[in-house]
Write a structure and sequence with these properties.
This protein has 165 residues and is α+β, with helices and mostly antiparallel strands. The chain has one domain (7-164): Trna Endonuclease, Chain: A, domain 1 (3-Layer(aba) Sandwich). It contains three helices and eleven strands, in the order H-E-E-E-E-H-E-E-H-E-E-E-E-E. The strands form three sheets. A five-stranded mixed sheet has the order 1-2-3-5-6. A four-stranded antiparallel sheet has the order 4-7-8-11. The two termini are 31 Å apart. The model has no long low-confidence stretch (mean pLDDT 87).
């Protein structure tokens, strides 16, 4: 076993720390440099948690992009076919780790933003936007525009959603 700590360990650790502090005991299913998958049991509910992270350099930037490769899509399809409760966790951080945000979306919300059967783009993408003083992070993606006719078309992800886990 390699004893080096990967950058991804720090990002996944942010989510895991919050979950463990709430009394949960997540189980590692798979992890690598681009995503981590954990099982979380909360009461009678079981969740599969799919974690991705993105970093922006400048503090004034408030958009984080998350890409889904063909392998990611195959994996998401595999888990979604099992009719499991799947949550998608987006760790949105700055280089200095201060003011990191954790966005959580359901499978249904994710599927409003990406196409599992997309053949036009090589990669699907979701974007998380941080709006100052808003109780929600905003999500859009390859399948869903952020604005339509000058109106907000994003999916609002409550910033406190993690407190329900």
């Amino acid at each position: 076993m390699d004893n080096s700590v990967l950058k991804s360990d720090f990002y996944y650790g942010a989510f895991l720390s919050k979950i463990i502090d709430a009394g949960n005991k997540p189980t590692l299913i798979k992890k690598d440099r681009v995503r981590g998958i954990y099982r979380l049991n909360k009461g009678t509910e079981n969740y599969l948690v799919y974690i991705k992270y993105a970093t922006v350099r400048e503090k004034h930037r408030r958009r984080w992009n998350f890409t889904y490769t063909d392998n990611d899509i195959k994996e998401i399809k595999k888990y979604s076919d099992k009719s499991e409760n799947i949550l998608f966790v987006f760790i949105c951080t700055y280089r200095d780790f201060n003011n990191t945000e954790i966005g959580i979306a359901t499978l249904e919300e994710l599927l409003e933003c990406i196409r599992l059967d997309c053949t036009v783009n090589k990669n699907n993408r979701t974007t998380i936007i941080k709006v100052p003083n808003s109780p929600a992070l905003r999500m859009y993606g390859t399948k869903r525009a952020d604005m339509i006719n000058n109106k907000d078309n994003t999916i609002h992800l409550s910033r406190s959603r993690i407190n329900g886990l």
